[in-house]
Design a protein that fits this description.
mainly beta; five-stranded mixed β-sheet
């Protein structure tokens, strides 16, 4: 302890020397300084008298704690050697009071000198005392060893090996190991296999060796101290070696700069800035995918914060300064610096550094951005190339180069395609027809003066990658080598050509010079040459010629290409042949002489004349070491043959997975790399590939496996554990105290093995060791105490590295026996299963139980910083744990526990450490499952994080499971499984798991009775497996009438066995039976080709697949069998039917848009000879267009469909192979469906209701595409349905539906609606018959009614007159007709429009007002002509014409012509009547046909069955005035001549 006090005083002295200003400005301190040496000496002498005892941990002495003391001494000495404070120049002026200041400073300097002398004396005395103690111990040790008999010699053996460390720059690191052997081995230290000599670098290395523990201390580590350190132990029996890696990191940004090359360039000058900038939240390691948008953001505090004057920021990728472009956007302001990538590409991957100018220099931060490949268009295609650049631009030539992608899991790249695009266009043009195998391509044939962009696509055997990011624009322009530009101050440049300087005028150019190959590979070579100088003003181009070997036969290479650039790629070269080349210059004046030929050139140089051909060799040894919880530091040796190396690709794989994944996606230039994105607790191996333009090298050898965890912090003080804390008194009996305490927060990276306790009486300075034996657990009973005395305690923890620093002294505990009836405090509160809203609190039962046993516990809770504790549980809990729920996510809480017995509530425990209610990232829960192979029930847990020393502790009801015959536990990596041996009900309960040496990784699972039963069922099914069936045994009828019995299993193996049993008889594949299975689908099937009545019965399928069995049965009897048999016979007949022409679709109907009903069918297997016939009710239907069976379908149109079209329709298809019939019964439901389909189309096409007046009344009409009375049509008047009656008549035509109001009155006014129903919907139209509409309609009705009456009663010829009469001369002609009219009409006859008067030859009669006749006796040729009759009364009349033709005896009877004179004929020829259609609105009485007149019957009586139209009189006819209402037919109409009876 004296040493410790000496160190503290030394530190005080050092602080005083370093800060004279602070002491000078504190006058009170001047008064206290002289007293400091005397008090220090007093303390020192008191410590000399304290008890000294030894404490041993394994092979380490407790005195190892002095190592940290010695280290602090070294640091203090170094600090004292630093230069003193220097007063700046601007403060050297002497203000007022400076003399007093100098006097005080001199006085203080003398006191400080005396203090240093006293401290020096104390150090010498302490050192002498420590050496005396050490010599005494060594003498005792030698004496003890003399008594030990000689042991057997042993070779060196490392009991504790060296451990790798990752430390910060300027911090110390200690490597230590424990070596055994006899005689004692000698240990030598090496760095990178070079012996370490401490004297070669004084103060850098310190080597110690005590009690078998050998250590190497490296002070103030620098990055250059990184390397492999080894300790070699040697004695006469042999040699042993232990190695470790030391990685020194520089604490800047994300820590990348400490050991990664490629940093941002150093500052060449300091940029003046008046802003103070402090970076706060900085961007970390970032992962992105091609095509995404990513931003790197750093927040900062700027003083002063001027909105219009933000700090100047520079962004670097690796060592390249970035500028704003379409690919990167930069912004700074508002305390945020941002770098945005709108569209990520692998070109963007790298180490990004933000550098901001500040008042004191710069503030910097760095972190890596990783960009992985976007998903390819074809699975297995390679990633896109990157870093596409265009160089060596000439008039029509550019060299395009790029970097190859990493192919970790994809097939090797077989070539690349290069695309180009002119600036300002969007179309990409492929430059090479076949893929190029190297990462560069000379592109020629460009347009001079045009700007181009290029992109590249990689290809392998699977597919083509996505295109790379396009290159920056490059202009194809000639390099004028013979032009010199001289700039003159001002605005003029003088351009001088070489020919002008030389005084010559060039016409025929000179040949090029220095023709050589600049690129040689397996695909092409690139020829280059120097243009002639001078080459004249005329534009020149070049011709290239080649010859094979030493031949003098030269062949033109570029026959179709005019070269303007002194570069050209040559592809047309055979493998294994060498070629010579020469170049000729051409201009408009002619050709130059050929250049000197090149040396022989081959595409592949087998003799190594051209260096650096091919991929690099594989990199050397790969060494991986820890970095952070999710990263590793990887370094490797460069390849022996780099061959123009571009960089490296690093791959990683989880040990045991055999799956590799890329760590970087852009070639990395250096041999040291930090692989990010790893999973803590997993073990990885790494490999490296070198990259150049020819591709990727072979993979390096794999590194040693590396467990991913945070590296040790690396300083000596962290090797030993930190101090315990929370010392609590649990019991006191008056002479002994039971203490408990909390474990150190930092274990030093290894397990704590023991604890050392010291005690002292309150108020005393002398600490005494409690026991020579250390405490193993965190509870200890200190005995032999004095009752009534207050004691203080302190505790030190120890691990393999040594004894840690002591705890703070406990509060003073009174050694008085506890006699209270209530229990003492619980202790060792711990937290597990911490989630966002809950946690599990555990504690240990009180040591002191009071007057009766403990019956329960109360838990109190409060938020951190609050003293308001609330009791969590209303009733005491009987166990030493409690699940606390309802917490606020992210809030911190503290807890304390109070035990309860029959006498009351005891003392509360110490308040716990704060705990935050927040689940660890990636935390998972325990999963219960059943092993698919063994059927074992298990609980499985995957930890989100582990450390190398982590252990999985399983508990039941929160009591650790140590040895049990109920379960067994297996753990590997981050997984742990608890398996039940023979699960029963006693295994029910809560199982929990805790992972040691983590940040509280834990979980629990309650195995309930229901879950237990479910798991047992699953276990039974696995241990007694059945073949899982997707479907049971089923049957289906196939096309030919075959019956298929089938079953589908979820999974079948290739060794499955099965058999079908029908009616207790096994069936095998034979004639009539086909049995098969498909492993991929799991289907087993049996097909019976001829299914008959004999196949009725029970069908069973038995399956054996390994250990699994299954059986399924199908009973096919009774009605079920009859149904199957009927279907099978039908399908058999269908198959036979389909062998000839047949209907693939039977007759059906559809209605066209014009309401035509079409009966349609589809045909199959037809040929030219196939016939097709339609029938209705067994009568053949003749159609206008014969059916064409070869078209594949036939249709029968039924226009204007109505009830008369009902019947049985039949279509017969046949040829020499057979016939097929389709029958369609259009009646009942089918007829209704057709009518409804027509109604749907007609209803949609229905027009609005139209008003039409008739002589009978007012008619409402609705026009539509088609109407038939079979359609469900309803008429409504004021929502009342109208039925057809004498007053309301309902009807229609094919084009419309109508409703007529006969003799309308005012009662018929109102709304009228027609509704057309199509079975699904109704279509309605409405008309408002009221108001003016009704008045106008009624007036029109009255007018038409009067006109109809007049038309009905006018005079008219009812019948009897022919149109033409042919008669032989000298016969008697009688023209007789029936007339009608009311009143009786007047009758007038005309001949050739002249009225005929009755005389001897012409006799006119009119009998009874009905019959009128004109008789001509002894007709002559002169009687030929046009006769007419005019019948008329007061209502009107009618005019009818008859043509009479007279011919002489012996002449041919002339052809009668209406309206012309006919020649005489022997016998009259009857005329064919031509019926005319009268107007429907003017009905006339029926008009009988008039027979052909004959001699014997001059006045025949005509029948009354034929209508006769009314003829139109000739214009000159003396007819009544035209004012007569009755219309007359046109003159072209003639009365029909009836046939002769």
């Amino acid at each position: 302890m004296g040493v410790k006090i000496e160190q503290e005083l030394s530190n005080c002295s050092q602080a005083a020397l370093q800060t004279p200003k602070a002491l000078l400005f504190s006058w009170g301190l001047f008064q206290s300084v002289p007293d400091m040496p005397s008090r220090a000496v007093t303390l020192y002498r008191q410590e000399q008298t304290q008890h000294q005892s030894s404490k041993h941990v394994v092979q380490l002495s407790r005195k190892s704690s002095s190592k940290s003391v010695k280290k602090e001494q070294v640091q203090a000495t170094e600090a004292m050697a630093e230069p003193a404070y220097t007063v700046p120049t601007f403060r050297e002026s002497a203000p007022e009071g400076m003399q007093e200041y100098q006097r005080m400073a001199a006085h203080f300097g003398r006191d400080l000198f005396q203090l240093q002398q006293e401290l020096h004396r104390m150090k010498e005395a302490t050192h002498e005392q420590v050496e005396n103690i050490e010599i005494t111990r060594q003498v005792k040790g030698i004496s003890a060893r003399k008594e030990i008999p000689a042991e057997v010699p042993r070779p060196p053996d490392f009991l504790i090996s060296l451990r790798s460390h990752t430390v910060w720059e300027k911090t110390p690191v200690k490597l230590f190991c424990t070596v055994s052997g006899l005689p004692n081995p000698i240990v030598k230290w090496y760095k990178n296999d070079v012996a370490i000599e401490p004297l070669s670098a004084p103060g850098k290395f310190k080597i110690e060796s005590k009690y078998g523990v050998h250590s190497l201390i490296i002070s103030r580590c620098a990055v250059s101290d990184s390397g492999v350190y080894s300790a070699v132990a040697t004695n006469p029996q042999g040699k042993a070696t232990s190695k470790a890696i030391v990685c020194v990191r520089r604490p800047l940004g994300g820590g990348e700069l400490a050991h990664l090359p490629g940093q941002v360039p150093l500052l060449s000058s300091i940029h003046a800035s008046k802003l103070e900038v402090t970076l706060l939240d900085n961007f970390g390691v970032t992962f992105g995918t091609e095509g995404e948008s990513v931003s790197l953001v750093s927040t900062m505090v700027v003083v002063p914060d001027l909105p219009n004057l933000p700090p100047e920021a520079m962004w670097y990728r690796d060592d390249t300064l970035l500028k704003p472009s379409r690919w990167v956007e930069m912004s700074i302001g508002g305390g945020v610096a941002r770098l945005t990538f709108p569209h990520l590409n692998k070109d963007d991957e790298g180490l990004y550094t933000l550098r901001i100018w500040t008042k004191d220099g710069t503030a910097e931060h760095s972190a890596y951005l990783f960009v992985k490949d976007a998903a390819p268009t074809v699975a297995g295609a390679p990633g896109a190339p990157m870093d596409v650049t265009a160089s060596d631009a000439n008039a029509d030539y550019v060299l395009v180069s790029w970097k190859p992608p990493n192919t970790t899991n994809e097939a090797p790249i077989t070539g690349y395609f290069v695309d180009r695009r002119k600036s300002g266009t969007k179309d990409w043009v492929q430059c090479n027809d076949s893929p190029v195998k190297v990462c560069k391509l000379p592109v020629h044939g460009l347009t001079e003066g045009a700007s181009y962009h290029f992109r590249v696509r990689a290809m392998n055997k699977t597919g083509i990658s996505l295109p790379s990011r396009m290159s920056t624009g490059v202009t194809a322009a000639a390099v004028e080598s013979d032009v010199e530009v001289i700039k003159i101050e001002g605005k003029y440049d003088i351009v001088i050509r070489q020919e002008e300087l030389q005084g010559v005028y060039v016409t025929i150019p000179e040949p090029p010079t220095n023709v050589h190959a600049t690129e040689i590979n397996k695909t092409y070579i690139v020829l280059s040459w120097t243009p002639p100088s001078p080459r004249g003003r005329a534009h020149v181009w070049y011709l290239i010629e080649k010859s094979v070997g030493d031949s003098h036969l030269w062949q033109r290479v570029n026959t179709a290409v005019q070269l303007r650039s002194p570069r050209y790629p040559v592809y047309d070269m055979d493998d294994g042949k060498s070629y010579r080349f020469r170049v000729i210059t051409v201009n408009k004046y002619g050709l130059s002489e050929p250049s000197e030929p090149t040396a022989p050139i081959q595409k592949v140089d087998p003799h190594g004349i051209v260096p650096n051909i091919g991929v690099p060799s594989a990199p050397g040894q790969v060494v991986a070491s820890r970095n952070t919880k999710t990263s590793a530091f990887v370094q490797w040796e460069p390849p022996k043959h780099p061959n123009n190396l571009m960089g490296y690709y690093v791959d990683a794989s989880v040990v045991g997975s055999k799956v590799w994944f890329p760590c970087n996606h852009r070639p990395y230039k250096h041999t040291r790399f930090v692989a990010h994105g790893l999973v803590q607790g997993d073990t990885y191996v790494f490999r490296v590939q070198a990259v150049n333009a020819y591709g990727l090298s072979e993979e390096s050898q794999e590194s040693a496996p590396l467990f991913i965890d945070a590296a040790l912090k690396g300083a000596v003080e962290y090797a030993a554990p930190s101090a315990p804390y929370g010392i609590t008194l649990l019991n006191c009996n008056g002479s002994a105290m039971t203490l408990a305490w909390k474990r150190p927060k930092h274990t030093g990276g290894t397990k704590i093995t023991s604890y050392y306790l010291d005690k002292r009486e309150a108020g005393s300075l002398n600490w005494k060791e409690v026991s020579p034996s250390p405490a193993i657990h965190r509870i200890f009973t200190v005995e032999n105490l004095t009752g009534g005395v207050f004691y203080e305690f302190k505790i030190q923890a120890a691990n393999l590295a040594g004894v840690g620093v002591p705890s703070e002294p406990s509060k003073a505990f009174a050694c008085e026996a506890w006699t209270m009836p209530e229990p003492g405090p619980a202790y060792d509160l711990s937290f597990w299963e911490v989630r966002d809203n809950s946690l599990l609190l555990q504690w240990r039962a009180p040591v002191y139980t009071g007057g009766s046993p403990v019956t329960g516990y109360f838990v109190d809770m409060a938020k951190k910083g609050s003293s308001n504790f609330a009791t969590v549980n209303a009733e005491p809990v009987g166990q030493c744990y409690l699940k606390v729920t309802g917490l606020e996510a992210g809030a911190s809480y503290v807890f304390k526990v109070r035990a309860v017995n029959a006498n009351g509530v005891g003392r509360a425990s110490e308040v716990s450490d704060p705990v935050c209610a927040k689940a660890l990232p990636g935390m998972k829960e325990i999963v219960c499952g059943v092993d698919e192979e063994t059927g074992d029930i298990f609980l499985n847990f995957e930890a989100c994080e582990t450390s190398e020393t982590s252990k999985f502790i399983w508990s039941k009801s929160y009591k650790e499971i140590t040895e049990s015959n109920r379960v067994f536990i297996t753990s590997s990596g981050r997984h742990s499984k608890l398996t039940f041996i023979n699960p029963e009900k006693e295994d029910l309960g809560t199982y929990s798991l805790a992972v040691t040496d983590t940040d509280g990784v834990s979980a629990s699972y309650t195995l309930s009775e229901e879950e237990h039963k479910k798991m047992l069922e699953l276990s039974y099914n696995i241990r007694h497996p059945i073949v899982p069936l997707k479907t049971e045994l089923n049957y289906e009828i196939l096309e030919k009438g075959h019956v298929r019995f089938w079953l589908q299993a979820l999974k079948l193996s290739s060794s499955v066995n099965y058999r079908f049993i029908v009616n207790d008889k096994a069936i095998s594949s034979a004639e009539g039976y086909k049995i098969s299975h498909d492993v991929n689908t799991g289907i087993i099937q049996m097909t019976i080709e001829l299914f008959t009545k004999a196949n009725e019965g029970t069908y069973t399928l038995q399956i054996h697949d390994g250990k699994a069995k299954s059986q399924s049965s199908l009973v096919l009897v009774g009605d079920v069998f009859k149904t199957a048999l009927k279907e099978a016979e039908f399908q058999r007949k269908e198959h036979i039917r389909k062998q000839g022409p047949h209907f693939s679709e039977y007759l059906s109907f559809h209605v066209t848009d014009d309401c035509t009903v079409m009966l349609v069918c589809k045909l199959a297997n037809v040929k030219k000879e196939t016939t097709f016939t339609w029938f209705k009710d067994d009568e053949e239907i003749t159609v206008d267009v014969p059916p064409n069976p070869m078209s594949g379908s036939c249709a029968l149109p039924i226009p204007m469909f109505s009830r008369k079209d009902q019947g049985i329709y039949k279509a017969i298809l046949g040829d020499d192979r057979g016939k097929d019939t389709s029958v369609y019964d259009i009646s009942g439901k089918v007829f209704e469906d057709i009518i409804n389909a027509i109604a749907s189309i007609a209803g949609k096409s229905a027009s609005d209701l139209v008003l039409q007046c008739t002589p009978e009344g007012i008619r409402l009409q609705c026009y539509m595409k088609y109407y038939t009375e079979e359609m469900k049509t309803s008429w409504f008047h004021r929502e009342s349905k109208i039925s057809s009656s004498e007053r309301m008549r309902i009807g229609g035509t094919s084009e419309m539906a109508w409703m007529q109001i006969c003799e309308p009155t005012d009662k018929e006014k109102g709304h009228y609606t027609i509704e057309i129903h199509d079975g699904k919907a109704s279509h309605s139209r409405t008309f408002d018959l009221s108001g003016q509409a009704y008045s106008d309609a009624y007036a029109e009705f009255q007018r038409l009614k009067a006109a109809a009456f007049a038309e009905k009663n006018r005079g008219r010829v009812v019948g009897g007159l022919p149109d033409v009469v042919t008669i032989m001369e000298k016969k008697t002609l009688s023209l007789t007709c029936t007339v009608w009219g009311d009143p009786s009409p007047e009758v007038t006859w005309f001949k050739n429009e002249q009225e005929v008067l009755s005389d001897d030859r012409y006799k006119i009669t009119f009998e009874g007002g009905k019959f009128s006749s004109l008789t001509i006796n002894t007709v002559t040729v002169e009687d030929s002509g046009k006769f007419s009759i005019n019948v008329r009364n007061k209502y009107g009349g009618e005019f009818v014409e008859i043509t009479v033709s007279v011919y002489k005896h012996g002449e041919e009877i002339p052809e009668p012509k209406l309206g012309q004179m006919s020649k005489p004929a022997a016998t009259p020829k009857p005329a064919t009547p031509k019926p005319a259609t009268p107007k429907p609105a003017t009905p006339t009485p029926p008009k009988s046909q008039t027979p052909t007149p004959s001699i014997k019957s001059p006045t025949p009586t005509p029948p009354s069955s034929v209508k006769s139209p009314t003829p139109t009189p000739a214009p000159k006819s003396p007819t009544p005035p035209r004012s007569v209402r009755s219309p007359t037919p046109t003159r072209s109409l003639r009365s029909p001549t009836p046939t002769k009876k």
